[in-house]
Amino acid sequence: MPIRPELRKYYGVAHRAYRLALIAARGNRCSKCGQEVTKYLNLAHTTHDPKRSDVALMCPADHNRHDARHRYAVWRRNRARRVGQLWLWAEVQWAPYPLWLIPPRERPAPDKPGDLF
Questions:
Q1: Could you report how far apart the first and last alpha carbons of the chain are, in Å?
Q2: How would you class 55 by CB atoms within 10 Å of its CB: exposed for 0-12, middle for 13-18, buried for 19 or more?
Q3: 5-88 adopts what CATH topology?
Q4: pLDDT per residue of the chain (117 residues) written in tens, 0 to 9
Q5: In the chain, what are the domain boundaries?
Q6: 11, 25, 67, 91: which has the highest count of C-beta atoms within 10 A?
C-alpha cells in the first residue's frame, strides 16, 4: 500500500536509519512469526500512527496481515466519500485515522482527554 501524501514526511532518512538500527539490535527476525528474514524486513507501526506508535519488525506477510483491516477501513471510507455518503457521526467517518489528522472542526468533543467514544 503506498504511503499517503500527508504521511510521507515521517518516512524519510531518519526512519530508514531507525529501521537499520533496530535490525542491528534485534537481528533479522520477524516479531510476529520469528522467521529469519534476510531482505525486506519491514518496520511496522502497531497502531497505524507514525507520530505516536510503537513499532515492530515484521516480515512482508505478517506486515500485510497486520495492515489488512486498517487498509480495508481506509478503502471503504475513501469509496464512500467518492460516492457522496453522509456520516451519522464524525467518529465513524474518521475512525481509521489518528486524531491529529482529523480536521479540528470535525473532531469529537471528548468528555475527558483521550475518550473518543
A1: 29
A2: middle
A3: His-Me finger endonuclease fold (3.40.1800)
A4: 677 787 788 888 988 899 999 999 999 999 999 999 888 899 988 888 888 878 899 999 999 999 998 888 888 888 888 998 887 777 777 777 787 888 887 776 666 555 544
A5: 5-88
A6: 67
Q: What are 30's strand-pairing partners?
A: none
What does the block give as the cell for 27? 537481528
Q: Is 8 helix (H, G, I), strand (E, B) or coil?
A: helix
**Strand, coil or helix: what is 56?**
strand
The CA distances from residue 51 to 8, 30, 82, in Å, are: 12, 22, 27
CA distance 92 to 73: 10
Rounded to an integer, what distance in angstroms lies between the CA atom of residue 98 and that of residue 7?
11
Q: Which residues contact 106 (CB under 8 A, 6 or more apart)?
A: 90, 93, 94
